[in-house]
TrEMBL record, chain A:
Transmembrane segments: none
Entry keyword set: ATP-binding, Nucleotide-binding, Transport
Family, as annotated: Belongs to the ABC transporter superfamily.
Pfam families hit by this protein: ABC_tran, oligo_HPY
Matching CDD domains: ABC_NikE_OppD_transporters
Record GO biological process: peptide transport; transmembrane transport
Protein name from the UniProt record: Peptide/nickel transport system ATP-binding protein/oligopeptide transport system ATP-binding protein
Higher taxonomy: Bacteria, Bacillati, Actinomycetota, Actinomycetes, Streptosporangiales
UniProtKB/TrEMBL annotation, chain B:
Cited PROSITE patterns: ABC_TM1
Protein keywords: Cell membrane, Membrane, Transmembrane, Transmembrane helix, Transport
Keyword Oxidoreductase: no
Signal peptide start-end: none
Name this protein carries in UniProt: Peptide/nickel transport system permease protein
Principal place of residence: membrane
């Protein structure tokens, strides 16, 4: 079943009088099935983040449509759009700037709950809220007691976990991750990826996973979409894109990174 | 680890450490002094009836134009001397502190609230609200606020709250500009984007994410504005357009005293000194506050 569908999405920036517009996303159409992981790869500046912002409706597209669960996100009333936002959450690239430095972890993780459920606001509801936040933190492998700390007291990997805990607070159906592991070192990266895989098994989450780390993509993706200059030049099952890339650009991308799995590297060269 | 040799490290650690350490101590001493002055002013103003030796408006025509107690002809009962109507200068200074601090704090607070709201809305929403508000700010700046204050006081009539409203209503531009520029950089930060993705509304984002992050610069400007408002009130009172005559203010004292500067200098000099010390102390405190709020600048 299709959860998310993009139809002819286009985004131009600038383009005032006498200036050519930058086309950041140029006619992207794709569909993401419920429960799958779609990876979005491509060089820096190829439009991945812009596409993420478009599909989350954080930016208005110049043209095209975003359909979530069959409904067009354009033209929704603010209240309806908020209701849809409950179901699609995001974890952004930089764990250092994605948290308000003046908020405690409790309030950071509880923000989605408080935003969508006014009933949990207020001092009286505080104990219940703390309990829920504690449960979410434990789900991402952090002790519930870290709630009273501020973001700067955590390492990059821990912050990333906090971001994921926050994104999971509303039990969304779609989780969009923009380079969720690029700021992490390799061992922490592996922990975060394991966590994501486990959550997907348990809750049937759908992921849109942006990365230029092809080793990571290989490990998590069911399907891979390759972006270049705002367009999708190749899309297909991960094994196919990695082992038999159909587009010259994809081959160049793959050759540009050392393959962490020597067996597959050999296979690819051989095949 | 071995001690650094002069050839590899020309500056020994001690020589590198001392200047910044001395500066830090000096800074703190100055800050301590400034805060002590402010505390003394505040306490004196707050407990004026207990601190002041005389009724500030009580005239004693037999003891007119007495110099301070330590000079020839000074009376022991009037430590800082008396004015042309025989009123005790020390008592008047103490009561004046009350008005100055009340006006300074209230006006700065009012201006701060207006400025913060304008800066938040302008910086966060952008577009036409931004253009309209910033145009207003330009107009406000182009018009000397003391002139505007004069016009309004002249029109509405003088009074303590009129002065506070006028000074508060004209002092918001500095806050608004700084808050706006802070917000312009804050609003592209990932935590604001995420809040929006979560579904938080504009108001919630401003209150939860933007306002707490602009409090430090707000407080810094606030101190400067307190000093500015105190001086502005004194100027208005000096011109006779501040608060009614029965309320003692430093500005009115200055204005009374200028006629007697040649013969009885103390009438004008003491309120002048009080005004200067207060403004200076507030500014020093504000400086230190800024350094503390910006850890990078503090360590330098
Ligand atoms: N707000 C903006 N205003 C103008 N141009 C923009 C804006 N955002 C993105 N662009 C342009 O759109 C293009 C795509 O940018 P985008 O951030 O989507 O790339 P990306 O694939 O996410 O890159 P990276 O891998 O470095 O994160 C770039 O050329 C960029 O300069
Ligand atoms: Mg990006």
């Amino acid at each position: 079943m299709t959860l998310l569908e993009l139809r002819g999405l286009r985004k131009e920036y600038g383009g005032r009088i006498g200036q050519a517009a930058t086309v950041a996303v140029d006619g992207v159409s794709l569909a993401v099935a419920e429960g799958e992981t779609l990876a979005l790869v491509g060089e820096s500046g190829s439009g991945k983040t812009t596409l993420v912002r478009l599909l989350l409706r954080l930016t208005e597209p110049t043209a095209g449509q975003v359909l979530f669960d069959g409904g067009d996100l354009a033209g929704l009333t603010p209240a309806r759009l908020r209701a849809v936002r409950r179901e699609m959450q995001v974890v952004l690239q930089d764990p250092y700037s994605s948290m308000n430095p003046r908020m405690r972890v409790t309030d950071i993780v509880a923000e989605p709950l408080v935003t969508h459920d006014p009933a949990v606001r207020g001092r009286a509801r505080r104990p219940g809220l703390r309990e829920r936040v504690g449960g979410l933190l434990e789900a991402v492998g952090l002790p519930a007691a870290v709630q009273d700390r501020y973001p700067h007291e955590f390492s990059g990997g821990q912050r990333q976990r906090i971001s994921i805990a926050r994104a999971l607070a509303l039990e969304p159906r779609l989780l969009v991750l923009d380079e969720p592991t690029s700021a992490l070192d390799v061992s922490v990266q592996a922990q975060v990826l394991d966590l994501l895989a486990e959550l997907q098994r348990r809750r049937g989450l759908t992921y849109v996973f942006v990365s230029h780390n092809l080793a990571v993509v290989r490990a998590v993706a069911d399907r891979v979409a390759v972006m270049r200059h705002g367009r999708i030049v190749e899309i297909g099952p991960a094994a196919q894109v990695f082992d038999a890339p159909g587009h010259a650009y994809t081959r160049a991308l793959l050759d540009a990174v050392p393959d962490p799995d020597p067996r597959r590297a050999r296979r690819r060269k051989a095949g | 680890m071995t001690a650094p040799t002069p050839t590899t490290d020309p500056t020994p650690p001690a020589a590198r450490g001392i200047p910044s350490g001395v500066r830090a101590v000096l800074r703190n001493r100055l800050a301590l002094a400034a805060m002590a002055v402010l505390a003394a002013m505040a306490l004196a103003g707050l407990f004026a009836p207990l601190v002041a030796p005389h009724d500030p408006n009580a005239q004693d025509l037999l003891a007119r134009l007495r110099p301070p107690a330590w000079l020839d002809g000074g009376a022991p009962g009037h430590l800082l001397g008396t004015d042309q109507l025989g009123r005790d200068l020390l008592s008047r200074l103490v009561y004046g502190a009350r008005v100055s601090l009340l006006v300074g704090l209230s006006a700065a607070l009012l201006a701060g609230v207006i400025g913060a709201v304008v800066g938040l809305v302008s910086g966060f929403l952008g577009g036409w609200p931004d253009r309209v508000l910033m145009r207003l700010a330009d107009i406000q700046l182009a018009f000397p606020s003391i002139l505007l204050a004069l016009a309004i006081v002249g029109f509405v009539g003088s009074g303590l709250w009129t002065v506070i409203l006028v000074l508060g209503g004209t002092g918001w531009v500095a806050y608004a500009r700084v808050v706006r520029s802070e917000v312009l950089s804050l609003r592209t930060r990932d935590f604001v984007t995420e809040a929006r993705a979560i579904g938080a509304g504009d108001l919630a984002i401003m209150r939860r994410h933007l306002l707490p992050n602009v409090m430090a610069p707000l407080a810094t400007i606030g101190t400067l504005q307190v000093a500015a408002a105190i001086v502005a009130e004194a100027s208005l009172s000096y011109l006779g357009l501040g608060v009614p005559k029965e309320i003692v203010t430093w500005g009115a004292m200055l204005s009374d005293g200028q006629l007697y500067l040649g013969t009885s200098w103390w009438i004008a000099v003491f309120p002048g000194l009080a005004l200067m010390c207060t403004a200076l102390a507030i500014n020093v405190t504000g400086d230190v506050l800024r350094d503390v709020a910006d850890p990078k600048a503090y360590r330098r």
